[in-house]
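Notebook p. 47: complex prediction with adenosine-5'-triphosphate.
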Amino acid sequence: MSKILIRHAVKKYGDHTVIPDLNLEIKDGELFTLLGPSGCGKTTLLRMIAGFNSIEGGDIYFNDIRINDLDPSKRNIGMVFQNYAIFPHMSVYDNVAFGLKNRKMEPKKIQELTEQYLELMQIAEYASRMPNQLSGGQQQRIALARALVISPDVLLMDEPLSNLDAKLRLEMRSVIRHTQKEVGITTVYVTHDQEEAMAISDTIAVMKEGVIQQVGTAKEIYQRPKNLFVASFIGRTNILPAKVEENALLFPSGYRVELGSGQQMENQEVQCSIRPEEFVISKQGDEGIHGVVREYSYLGPNTHYAVETVDGVTVEIIEESSMEDELKPGQKVLLQVKKERINIFDRTGRRNLVRSEAHEG
Amino acid sequence: MKAKQKFTLDIWGLITLGIIGVYLLFLLYPMAHLMKQSVYDPQTGQFSMENFIKFFSKSYYLNTLLNSFKVSLSATFLSILIGTPLAYLFSAYKIRGKSMLNILIIIASMSAPFIGAYSWILLLGRSGVITVFFRKLGIVLPDIYGFSGIVLVMSLQLFPLVFLYVRGALANIDNSLLEAANNLGCSGLKCFFKVVIPLIMPTLLAAGLLVFMRAFADFGTPMLIGEGYRTFPVVLYTEFVNEVKGNDGFAAAIAIIAIIITTFVFLVQKYISNKHSFEISALHPMVEKEPKKAQKFLIHLYAYLVVSIAILPQVYVTYTSFKNTSGKIFVPGYSLRSYETAFSKLGASIQNTIIIPLLALIIVVLLAVLIAYLAVRRRNALTNTVDILSMVPYIVPGTVLGIALLSSFNRRPLLLSGTMLIMVIALVIRRLPYTIRSSVAILLQIPLSIEEAAISLGASKMKTFFQVTVPMMAAGIISGAILSWITMISELSTAVILYTGRTKTLTVAVFTEVLRGNYGVAAALSSILTVLTVISLLVFNKINAGREISL
Ligand SMILES: Nc1ncnc2c1ncn2[C@@H]1O[C@H](COP(=O)(O)OP(=O)(O)OP(=O)(O)O)[C@@H](O)[C@H]1O
Ligand SMILES: [Mg+2]
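Predicted complex, structure tokens below:
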């Protein structure tokens, strides 16, 4: 078991800097997810940890051991690849036993461990088959068994589910989560699917252009995103311009929300991130942003609305479905916000002005 | 494109250096030696351009180059002209007995070219059976000696290469492209020229280059059937082999000029094909149609006629191997006497034909796999050098390489002339470029992550290579090796320079027996060679079940 410490890591391809200066601490035994849009450097970082990419600057430690110059075969890492990378010329059993054989274990021990992990991943019945006779999900189980059987210090997974269909993806997601907790191994998991990340992770690091934007639990990142990028990358949100005046939020249409004594903000122009469920719709009253319902869709537990405000912006709103009739297109409404939940960013979107524990320290 | 890596002195670094060393010693050094010989006057010990001046001032020599150029270009065009339509018909239509025709075409292409020449002399030569038959009817057939004979033999020998290349390319054309063309009102021949030909242009260019290089370097065919029409490999050979009047320096100069020409052709081809390169791959390959009545007859006529003519020389040679001979002429009656003589006098050459190519094959496969791995997985300046070096033999005609090796390794401490080793080395160097290309193609199919998986599981670099990479390449390597083997056992132009009594191979034996006029023995030996080839091809088909041959 290991914790991983990354200090000022730099990655360049030729003159092109992909990761300028990256710091991370990954705790022992946690499932740590790197999440970010395509091309942001997730794979690059993972392969630096694995030792398949050179490191142009900084240090990477497993516990207290600096591993920058350690050969990949000596790092004691388990790796699960997007395309599984199962050895096609070896049986399922031999695939799983491969790593153990490299460790010069005694044959009896090898057999015992191999069988144990085939059992754990529920593929024991296929042990003697060749991989091309197995489904994608089964191959992914082999990959997982093969990576775990060597009791690696760290498990690295690069989009392990992206080659599977939707249903298998959900199934394997829980298999991975469950197995990781059972074995208790420090895991770095790469994905660009934010829902997958939230479902599976202890900690998520959101990345953009080689820079870590925020590290936190799914809840922290969703509820208190550090900047506008994180707010819009994780979950859905509406971005509305506004002003802060005397510790109150003032929308262009004149709607005014007192921020309360818990928050102290200077007067300035801001951008508000208001998630669909952070609006309250009412048909009458005088408090709120005026708007007209344009579309609605009834999705069982929730009903989604698209409302066009007087400022000409269309916002997305989700309400719990009620027994009453839905609001029909053309209906005039007033929108209020749940002020404890919304996030307020400075004009550039780089900083969240709302004070929260998630950002302290 | 993968980024270049830095060179590191790990095990792969050492292998890179080792391979460069091998190339330095057995390719660059002989070439440099050849170059030195061409501009060095052994009498005065000084630099002299005399050899080159002699070459260019005598129209006789210059003409041999022109002749070579003419026959090679003509043979290239004819091969494309015969091979391309045939390949198209094979891909587009159902043809009876197609798989058998396929095998016959491959057999035809795998024989040593001069055996075709020799057989055509038996058929169409001055006293050839067909000539005599028509003469009795009062019809005089055109002369087969000289230019037309060389071009005929070379085209028939080489069109199968075009055929195989184009077949491969056509398999990659998506049927929907043709359907789209049809839909837009383009059909039949027009579609063939407007859509199919442009699509397979890169392949045609590659096949054309290969055919040209082979024709240009072919020594046996013009030697046998050229008579007064001399091409450069023949002059080179006679200048070099002729102990009395021959002049090594002059031969070296001719060799250098030949290399300059092939390099030029190579570069021109590269330039043109770069402009024509695009990737195609088919989801839905062409489907074979059932041709209509009249069409069907013409298609079958063409296919069977071409294949029969192509295979005729070998069939006829095999037939004559069972005829009785008296001195130099065939006499009525059949027996196995030619075979008895062949085995008693030249049995060793059969052994050599197994041992020498087998040794070469082992080395070629080993080197090719290593070099392919370096070129694909460890790109750096040095491995690029290896990659480029390995392509050099492609433009060096076999006779030239033979001469270069022989004149470089005929003194101590590097005394190799006359040994089996030097023949092995020659085969290795000549065959490497092809085997490397095919190994690279195989390796590109294997995802890098599989090797990384092995390494992350604690396997060393070498262990990963031998336990994971090589087994995954195995099927492709083996089939490539069999094809290499077939070309090696029928190799003549280098062996004819390097052989001695003890290292004579079957092809060389056939060649020398033909020159001596022992036609029966030559026919018997050549039939043995054909049998070896056919057996190898059958093994290839067995292993490859369904996969196409590529050279
Ligand atoms: N071998 C390479 N040479 C040069 N540039 C590279 C190389 N590998 C990756 N890059 C560049 O580095 C950046 C990060 O790539 P990386 O593969 O790490 O992205 P990613 O976050 O894994 O994206 P995805 O979600 O699409 O897998 C990209 O801009 C990519 O073009
Ligand atoms: Mg990636």
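Notes: Residues 4-223 of chain A form a domain with the Rossmann fold fold (CATH 3.40.50.300). Chain A has two domains: 4-223, 237-352.
Next step: compare against the earlier run before touching the bench.
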